[in-house]
Amino acid sequence: MGHRESEDLDFFSQHNFNPELLQSEIAKFGVLENTELSVGTVNTFCNGVKLQFLEYPYRLIGPQVSWKNMQLSSLLDIACTKLQTISMRGSKKDFIDLYFLLQTYSLQELFDALKKKYAGINYSITHIMKSLTFFADAEPQPMPRMHSLAAWDEIKQSVIKQVRAINF
Question: Which is it for strands 32-38 and 70-72: parallel, antiparallel or unpaired?
Answer without folding.
Answer: unpaired
